[in-house]
Design a protein that fits this description.
The complex is a heterodimer of chains A (342) and B (195).
Chain A lengths: L2 H13 L4 H13 L1 H18 L10 H58 L5 H13 L6 H6 L10 H4 L5 H6 L4 H4 L7 E6 L10 E4 L7 H15 L8 H9 L5 E10 L2 H14 L3 E8 L2 E9 L3 H11 L1 E4 L10 E10 L2
Parallel strand pairs in A: 3-7
Antiparallel strand pairs in A: 1-2, 1-3, 3-6, 4-5, 5-7
Helix pairs in contact in A: 1-2, 1-3, 2-3, 10-11, 12-13
Chain B lengths: L4 H8 L6 H20 L2 H17 L10 H27 L7 E3 L2 E3 L10 H4 L2 H13 L3 H12 L4 H8 L3 H23 L4
Antiparallel strand pairs in B: 1-2
Helix pairs in contact in B: 2-3, 2-4, 3-4, 4-8, 6-9, 7-9, 8-9
The chains are: A alpha+beta (342), B mainly alpha (195).
Chain lengths: 342, 195
């Protein structure tokens, strides 16, 4: 083994990390080579010198200084994080909360005011003029409010769902205004008069219970005298009460004949009445059933009403809900309640 | 089992005070590694402070795959090598050679030519010897220094050194043997005959 190879193995040999074979080869060479023995000794002294180096001690303030720097670093990191994310942590939730709050409040307010919004009545030109007339006449003629200003129907003894039911628009328009004065006057009828829409298409509809007929004729007459010419309505010349009603109710009102029929079996009689209406030429016959009461609605010529009443009396006990002096000519709405006797 | 892991975990959870035991436990070893790497106490103190600070900053990244001391030692070695590079650049700029005569308290010890007197080493005081040896270490390349410091001064195992330096164990050994030979030649220049 050459000296160069031996020198490369001297460190490992000194540490004892050579194989037995290498160790034997090194030792054989060292026994015969003084230079390599010297190199080994120099290496041993070098190691000794290095390992003899004393350890230095850290200064007493060393841990404290390190911890101070670490804490300063921690604080600066916090401040950086706060600078970066403080708005996100605090402001964004606040803003989000505020937005949600505003949205909820807006929805709540909208819902709270929705019926009012729907209920807002935008008066038409005709109504405005009528209101002005009423305003001028109200002190002297309180009945004016009940004839035109009222929008709701108040029917006595009529089931609630039908109270607000108004006649179809086409039917209303079919009613000729002049026929009002020429219609015969069945004496035992209660009438509900409805104000149909104007020809211009306005949806304003006014109905009034014919209870108004029971009012004293004198004030009503003045009311009609004030309003009928304004609408160009032809007022019937017969009785004062009839004139009052027709004139007051506007030329487009629909007369409703309201009759109740008390029979043993309402359902069975219902068909008979329906057939009867068909025989009399009634149109738009509609059936309703409400809590044991059969209700028939139809449009019938005024001339046929007397015949209808007479035939109804053959079927059962007929009760009228009011007295009507006369009915206008043309088509009126018939409403028949068929109730079973207990 | 790494006895530092408990404190490391606390630090990872944001407990700053848990870092102090780690500092107190490892400060001396780290300071000596840095000092023997650089041969400058002040620089070593600064490097070790920086190393602890780096360790704290990156402690959340510590996964426990290596011992905390190994991980910390790697930081110290890397920072020390960076500082050595800076010092070398600075000395080159100032025209100071690393091969310049070593200054001792008693004057200058010439590195080259080597002393002819065999008893020169014995005549030197212990402190002077240590300074001379440190100067010879300083003259080594950083790659040699680190293995020499970690193995012959700190007494770490080859596996641990390989883990710290992230090099294979065989590379550690070959590098160490060459470092010893280089140091031996350096010491011979300073002290003359070693044997």
């Amino acid at each position: 083994m050459k000296c160069r190879n031996i020198e490369n193995k001297l460190s490992a040999y000194l540490e004892g990390i050579v194989s037995p074979k290498e160790k034997e080869g090194v030792e054989n060479h060292l026994s015969s080579c003084q230079m390599c023995r010297k190199a080994l000794e120099e290496l041993r002294r070098t190691n000794a010198l290095v390992k003899g180096l004393e350890q230095v001690e850290p200064p007493p303030w060393f841990p404290q200084k390190i911890m101070t720097r670490v804490r300063a670093e921690q604080e600066s990191r916090k401040s950086i994080l706060q600078r970066l994310f403080y708005p996100l942590h605090i402001k964004v939730p606040l803003e989000a909360f505020a937005t949600v709050l505003i949205a909820v409040a807006a929805v709540y307010l909208f819902r709270a005011n929705e019926p009012e919004m729907k209920g807002i009545h935008i008066p038409t030109v005709a109504e405005q003029s009528a209101s002005k007339d009423e305003a001028t006449k109200q002190p002297a003629e309180p009945k004016g409010d009940t004839t035109i200003a009222k929008n709701r129907v108040d029917l006595e003894g009529v089931p609630q769902p039908q109270k607000q039911k108004s006649a179809p628009r086409d039917k209303n328009q079919q009613l000729p205004a002049p026929s009002v004065s020429e219609a015969p006057s069945p004496p035992f009828l209660e009438m509900k008069k409805e104000v149909p829409e104007k020809p211009s298409g306005s949806s304003e509809t006014t109905t009034q219970h014919t209870q108004a007929y029971r009012e004293p004729p004198a004030p009503a007459g003045t009311d009609s005298a004030a309003k009928a010419p304004a609408k160009g309505e032809k007022v019937g010349p017969r009785t004062s009460s009839t004139r009052v009603q027709v004139g007051t109710l506007n030329e487009k009102r629909v007369e409703v004949l309201d009759v109740s029929l008390h029979v043993r079996d309402a359902k069975a009689v219902n068909e008979d009445v329906e057939n009867l209406l068909g025989q009399l030429g009634a149109q738009n016959i509609k059936r309703e059933s409400l809590q044991g009461t059969e209700i028939l609605r139809a449009e019938l010529q005024v001339e046929k009403t007397q015949e209808l009443l007479e035939k109804l009396k053959l079927l059962g006990e007929v009760k009228e809900k009011g007295l009507v002096a006369e009915l206008p000519k043309g088509t009126i709405e018939i409403r028949i309640e068929i109730m079973s006797l207990p | 089992m790494d006895e530092d892991l408990e404190f490391v975990t606390l630090c990872q959870r944001g407990d700053v005070d848990a870092f102090r035991p780690l500092v107190e436990r490892h400060q001396k070893k780290m300071l000596n590694i840095a000092y023997r790497m650089m041969g400058d106490y002040e620089a070593a103190s600064e490097v070790v402070q920086d190393a602890f600070l780096h360790a704290y900053k990156a402690i959340r990244k510590f996964r426990g795959e290596a011992r905390f001391s190994t991980w910390l030692c790697r930081i110290v070695i890397n920072l020390s090598k960076n500082r050595i590079r800076q010092m070398k650049t600075q000395s080159e700029r100032e025209g100071v050679s690393l091969d310049a005569p070593i200054e001792t308290e008693d004057g200058q010890v010439s590195q080259d030519p080597p002393s002819e007197e065999p008893s020169a080493l014995e005549q030197m005081e212990r402190k002077e010897v240590q300074t001379a040896v440190q100067m010879c270490i300083n003259a080594l390349e950083s790659d040699f220094r680190e293995v020499l410091v970690l193995r012959d001064i700190q007494g770490l195992s080859y596996d641990e050194i390989g883990e710290i330096l992230e090099i294979p164990g065989g590379t550690v050994k070959s590098r160490l043997f060459r470092a010893r030979d280089a140091l031996k030649e350096g010491l011979k220049k300073v002290f003359g005959e070693l044997a």
